[in-house]
Amino acid sequence: MVLIKEQIKKIDKSIVEEVVEDELLERFKSCYQCGTCTGGCPSGRRAAIRTRDVIRQALVGLDDDLLSSDLLWLCSTCYTCYERCPRDVPTTDIIIKLRNIASHRGLMKGPHLAVSKMLIETGHGVPINDEKWSNLRKSLKLTPLPPTVHSFPEAVKEVQTIIKELKFDELIAYGEEVKKKLAEEEKKRAPERIEELEAELKQLKEEAGK
Questions:
Q1: In terms of domains, do 72 and 135 share one?
Q2: 129 Cβ partners below 8 Å, 6+ apart?
Q3: Are residue 44 and residue 134 in the same domain, yes or no?
Q4: Phi and psi (nearest 5°) for 99?
Q5: Are residues 89 and 159 in the same domain?
Q6: What is the extent of the structural domain holding 173?
Q7: pLDDT in tens for each of the 210 residues of the chain?
Q8: Of the residues 54, 86, 105, which one is the last residue of a structural domain?
Q9: Same domain for 98 and 191
């Protein structure tokens, strides 16, 4: 990632302080960008995430770019980066902390909002809503439903009580509101963005013709 003037203007060190509020994440600032985390990342082989870039953006203070990025949510939290880090930087825990910060700012991504709503409604993030899963469990000599809220529907109310007590439902509602607002702003900006792109294209053609 190359820093450009527009990015430098956005630098804000407050995100570093938010991360290291947790004493266990103090080693966050020990990262010297060796790239071991990126080199060993299983998700990085199949997705756009580059763990080193995520940590670097957080260290530099590009919080607006980072917290609104899809990259933050591509980590599978397998902890390979943490296990291999020569500086014992708890990379995975830092990413989880950054996700928490993003969520509290209403920047949780759509799929994660959907799973969270499912959790609030059903008490489970992975519902069994297809007969093939029940048949698969039977073939493995397991009960058709796992011993979770699927088997104990009355437990859903307990889960919902905990969610309400922690105000997780309010967080999700806030996230949906922010997502809606951002979509409306993006829609309003669309004509302006098209003009910008057309101007850039025109300039490129002029430069190519010289």
A1: no
A2: none
A3: no
A4: -65, -40
A5: no
A6: 107-210
A7: 444 445 444 555 566 677 766 666 778 888 999 999 999 999 988 888 899 999 988 888 777 788 888 888 999 999 999 999 999 999 999 999 899 889 988 989 888 898 899 889 888 887 776 788 888 888 999 988 888 888 888 888 898 999 999 899 999 998 889 888 888 888 888 888 788 888 888 888 777 776
A8: 105
A9: no
- Which residues have CB under 8 Å from 35's CB, separation 6+? 52
Q: Distance between CA atoms of 159 and 45, rounded to whole angstroms? A: 36
CA dist list (Å): 172 to 96, 102, 104, 105: 17, 12, 9, 11
| Residue 95: other Cβ atoms inside 10 A | 24
Q: What does the alpha-carbon distance between residue 193 and residue 187 come to, in Å, rounded to a whole number?
A: 10
How many Å apart are CA 14 and CA 176, to the nearest integer?
25
Are 1 and 97 found together in one domain?
yes
Distance CA 42, CA 44 (A): 5
Number of domains in the chain: 2
Q: What angle do CA 138, 141, 142 make, to 5 degrees?
A: 70
65 shares a domain with 8 = yes
pTM of the model: 0.71
Co-location of 68 and 6 in the same domain:
yes
Domain boundary among 105, 128, 159: 105
